[in-house]
Design a protein that fits this description.
single chain; alpha/beta; Rossmann fold; 2 domains; three-stranded parallel sheet; 10 helices; 11 strands; globular; binds NADPH dihydro-nicotinamide-adenine-dinucleotide phosphate
Length: 282
């Protein structure tokens, strides 16, 4: 039997419609959520991400402030801008688009964003809160994945969940959110031995590696839920996930496509965090 395809686009539209209504009523009460996005340099992929965030703000009614700085901007100038935005009452979320140019220390910059406006949840203070399970802002991609999983109706308690990838923005916080849902969690990475065997244990398999079609049907247990975070641009310019969609489709119970799976959820969760931040600012 073929897996059910989990459309992140549909879930995302549903959440965006709810956010839109919420923002309308907030505006009537004199509170207009605002998101500031800072882009340093001309990286084309970053430019696309920033444009998509701007479009999402427009759609939901969030005020968006865009700062495009030239490639040679100094770390001091960037930090100065962040500090100005920290004080700006019309800004409820601050996002510095990564990666930053090499001469800028990313950790130094992220540390300067006020934890109260850190809608990406990258500040060590918020990372710590995610670890403890007492969070304010949820990290956007893992939060989007949790929304997708909830829609399957699966109760994660006691389930074997395997996360492939241990990055600070996806793999590690993802594992924490699953753990807080009482799943039994395994994190895999490039040094993991017998990856196939470990993945085959998973009731829920989440793949965030950045290698096209790394995971095929042989890595998947019958009836598993498979979430593909990977976004790989192939030579023909097409987007491809880390999961071999066609082969896994026949084995999984649920699967997310690329594009149209996790991707749209990430931006929607960013919008949700911005709206929440505005509410908390009251
Ligand atoms: P990183 O490069 O930061 O991390 C990749 C992880 O994969 C590392 O932990 C690495 O292990 C692990 N890895 C690499 N090769 C293997 C392998 N052969 N077997 C097992 N593990 C391996 O990537 P990100 O987490 O930032 O992103 C991962 C993917 O998700 C990318 O394609 C990215 O574009 C996409 N992405 C998509 C988002 C969305 O919204 N849909 C959001 C963010 C990312 P080690 O630590 O040992 O090096």
């Amino acid at each position: 039997m073929s897996a059910v395809i989990l459309s992140g686009l549909e879930i995302s539209n549903d959440i965006r419609n709810k956010l839109k209504k919420k923002v309308e009523s907030m505006k009537q009460n004199g509170l207009h959520p605002g998101l500031a996005v800072i882009l340093v340099g001309n990286d084309p992929a970053s430019r696309i991400y920033v444009n998509n965030k701007k479009k999402a703000c427009e759609e939901i009614g969030i005020r968006s402030f865009e700062y495009v700085l030239h490639e040679e901007t100094s770390e001091e100038d960037l930090i100065q801008l962040v500090e100005t935005l920290n004080e700006d009452k019309s800004v409820h979320g601050i996002l510095v688009q990564l990666p930053l140019p090499k001469h800028i220390n990313t950790d130094n910059v992220l540390l300067k964003i006020s934890p109260n406006k850190d809608v990406d949840a990258f500040h060590p203070f918020n990372v710590g809160r995610i670890m403890i399970g007492d969070y304010c802002f949820l990290p956007c991609t893992p939060a989007g994945i949790m929304e997708i999983i909830h829609r399957t109706g699966i109760d994660l308690q006691g389930k074997e969940c395997v996360v492939v990838g241990r990055s600070n923005i996806v793999g590690k916080p993802m594992a924490m959110l699953l753990l807080h849902s009482n799943a039994t969690v395994t994190i895999c990475h490039s040094k993991t031995e017998n990856l196939k065997d470990v993945c085959r244990r998973a009731d829920v398999l989440i793949v965030a590696v950045g290698k096209p079609k790394l995971i095929n049907a042989e890595y998947v247990k019958d009836g598993a839920v498979v979430i593909d975070v990977g976004m790989n641009r192939l030579e023909n310019r097409k987007l491809c996930g880390d999961v071999d969609f066609e082969s896994v489709l026949e084995k999984a119970s649920y699967i997310t496509p690329v594009p149209g799976g996790v991707g749209p959820m990430t931006i929607t969760m960013l919008m949700k965090n911005t709206v929440m931040s505005a509410e908390l600012s009251k």
